[in-house]
């Protein structure tokens, strides 16, 4: 490696003692605390062992855990189709503001500010997607998909039109298939054409008077724009079906093209991908759903609308009902609104431009073969003779997070890479250097990786064959 | 690499085998299939009494690398399933034609066996 190489030198911290990794708080020092409670004796304990630590001990514990982790604040995180973006801290400040702590059951007239923010967020999203109205209720992207499918189902039923099939391309996100099946539809899988896009002949064959919905993401999971989208929309609409837009890849289009203008009738927004709210990891998310005029009556309740000089909550006439409690995941929606408002038209256009530029620059730089292209916000390289999962493990040793691997399956040993707009040229060069270093390595080296991380290769086989899913199970097995 | 392809079995091109023995037909996946899949971690099988249809899915096999459907080489009624696979799915890797068997089936139509690939034809396919 020459001195001017942009390659990152990396060794992850590993805090451990004789028993293993950094101990749990209660293992460091704990103390029996007596419990007094009005609850019946047979339901309660007399005492509880609680951690007993000083503030610096506590601070060090969490710092150590974070040092043994890798996140978007550690380095590049080009996990394709996930859009791992840095979440600006000012949005966290706003969500943590005391005035954001509003009880969801308060009377409408006392929470006009909250409703106004929800209304404004819905308006922003509708404008960005080219939709006529947006529900903020669904708590995640997949929940948004399911909501959208239910809206399509309710629409067809209302028209006395019993349709049983949903068409999904083979390159689609797995959640598309699951959402369609969960709503009771038969899934018709659409094979991709040779150029990685929707094959119009195959689509013609798949469409029938049973077609309720075609679910597409555009650009698709290969990062390719569906050039024939207007023709596709016409084919589906002529057959009486609706067109659904999976918003996972909206980052590529922000401020430049709108699903509504392409002929889509329903779409969801992954606010954690496109508008820099945190990815779930089990925490609350949001997956708003936009619809065209014809479908607004079917939106979930409660829904926000303007009335007089203020806002109110109401139930749309033919609402599919509730999909989540109260007004949706409000604190996530604050961050969404703040991000859009701070960036504005110009900022959003700039984000999509850089997302596309970065993906295409990186695709050009790396040694791995990159079939298809030119791309939008992500590209899929092939690890060729190497195992994509081993490549990913080895990339960790170079201080970068690896791309998504082995998917979509239309590319052998896929390395699905999405640098996003947050990275500058220097970081992209470091990422390319990591790809290229691994591409040159032999099988033995990459199969032994990772070596420089706090945890080495995880024993996936034992984890899958005899999973220990609680601490009791773990203790029993020891 | 060369894979075991016993002469007393017939094969589906989706890598399941069927072996007629003691008036019943045993079904499993081939050595080639277990090698492609890698470490098997879970096998989902039908219940006794369920009906199989030749060429249709009868179960699911999951490995560290992939999840695949299992296809029935013959039509018939399931008379036994290999319950040891619930706790020891690795038997499919260790002994695919022996202890890693999956189902025993009461055959509907013996001529279906003739429609399957012969050991020679299957060997050719995986070469």
UniProtKB/TrEMBL annotation, chain B:
The keyword Ubl conjugation does not apply. HAMAP family: GcvH (MF_00272). The keyword Membrane does not apply. InterPro entries: 2-oxoA_DH_lipoyl-BS, Biotin_lipoyl, GCV_H, GCV_H/Fam206, GCV_H_sub, Single_hybrid_motif. The modification N6-lipoyllysine is found at residue 65. Gene3D superfamilies: 2.40.50.100. The glycine cleavage system is composed of four proteins: P, T, L and H. Keywords: Lipoyl. Residues 24-106 form the Lipoyl-binding domain. GO terms for biological process: glycine decarboxylation via glycine cleavage system; protein lipoylation. Belongs to the GcvH family. Its cofactor is (R)-lipoate. Pfam families: GCV_H (PF01597). It comes from the Archaea. This is Probable glycine cleavage system H protein. GO terms for cellular component: cytoplasm; glycine cleavage complex. The glycine cleavage system catalyzes the degradation of glycine. The H protein shuttles the methylamine group of glycine from the P protein to the T protein. NCBIfam families: gcvH, PRK01202.1. Binds 1 lipoyl cofactor covalently. The gene is gcvH.
């Amino acid at each position: 490696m020459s001195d001017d190489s942009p390659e990152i030198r990396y060794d992850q911290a590993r805090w451990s003692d004789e028993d293993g990794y950094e101990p749990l708080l209660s293992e460091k020092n704990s103390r029996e605390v007596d419990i007094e409670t009005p609850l019946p004796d047979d339901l309660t304990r007399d005492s509880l062992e609680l951690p007993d630590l000083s503030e610096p001990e506590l601070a060090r514990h969490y710092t150590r855990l974070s040092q043994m982790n890798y996140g978007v604040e550690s380095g590049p995180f080009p996990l394709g189709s996930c859009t791992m973006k840095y979440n600006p801290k000012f949005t966290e400040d706003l969500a943590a503001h005391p005035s954001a702590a509003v009880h969801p059951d308060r009377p409408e007239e006392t929470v006009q500010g909250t409703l106004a923010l929800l209304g404004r967020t819905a308006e922003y999203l509708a404008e960005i997607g080219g939709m006529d109205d947006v529900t903020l209720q669904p708590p995640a992207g997949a929940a948004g998909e399911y909501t959208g499918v239910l809206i399509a189902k309710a629409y067809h039923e209302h028209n006395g039109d019993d349709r049983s099939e949903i068409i999904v391309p083979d390159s689609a996100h797995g959640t598309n298939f699951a959402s369609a099946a969960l709503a009771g539809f038969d899934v018709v899988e659409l094979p991709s054409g040779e150029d990685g896009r929707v094959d119009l002949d195959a689509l013609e064959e798949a469409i029938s008077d049973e077609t309720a919905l075609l679910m597409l993401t555009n650009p698709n999971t290969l990062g390719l724009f569906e050039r024939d989208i207007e023709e596709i929309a016409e084919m589906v609409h002529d057959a009486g079906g609706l067109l659904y837009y999976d918003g996972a890849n909206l980052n590529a289009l922000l401020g430049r093209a709108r699903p509504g203008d392409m002929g889509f009738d329903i779409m969801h927004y992954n606010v954690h991908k496109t508008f820099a709210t945190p990815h779930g990891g089990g925490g609350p998310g949001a997956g708003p759903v936009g619809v065209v005029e014809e479908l607004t009556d079917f939106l979930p309740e409660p829904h926000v609308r303007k009335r007089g000089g203020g806002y109110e909550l109401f139930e749309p006439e033919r609402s599919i009902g509730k999909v989540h409690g109260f007004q949706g995941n409000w604190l996530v929606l604050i961050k969404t609104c703040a991000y859009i408002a701070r960036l504005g038209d110009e900022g959003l256009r700039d984000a999509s431009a850089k997302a596309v530029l970065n993906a295409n620059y990186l695709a050009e730089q790396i040694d791995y073969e990159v079939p298809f292209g030119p791309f939008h916000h992500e590209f899929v390289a092939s690890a060729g003779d190497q195992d994509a999962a081993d490549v990913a493990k080895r990339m960790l040793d170079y201080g970068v997070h690896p791309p998504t691997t082995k998917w979509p399956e239309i590319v052998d040993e896929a390395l699905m890479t999405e640098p996003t707009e947050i990275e500058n040229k220097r970081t992209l060069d470091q990422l390319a250097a990591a790809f290229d270093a691994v591409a040159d390595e032999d099988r033995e080296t990459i199969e032994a990786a990772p070596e420089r991380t706090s945890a080495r290769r995880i024993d996936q086989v034992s984890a899958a064959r005899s999973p220990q899913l609680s601490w009791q199970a773990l203790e029993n097995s020891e | 690499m060369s894979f075991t392809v016993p002469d007393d079995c017939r094969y589906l091109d989706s890598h399941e085998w069927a072996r007629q023995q003691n008036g019943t037909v045993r079904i499993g996946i081939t050595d080639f299939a277990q090698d492609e899949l890698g470490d098997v971690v879970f096998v989902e099988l039908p219940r006794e009494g369920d009906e199989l249809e030749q060429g249709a899915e009868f179960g699911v096999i999951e490995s560290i690398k992939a999840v695949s459907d299992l296809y029935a080489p013959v039509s018939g009624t399931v008379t036994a399933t290999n319950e040891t696979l619930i706790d020891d799915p690795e038997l499919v890797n260790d002994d695919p034609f022996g202890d890693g068997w999956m189902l025993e089936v009461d055959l509907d139509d013996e001529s279906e066996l003739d429609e399957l690939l012969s050991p020679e034809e299957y060997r050719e396919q995986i070469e």
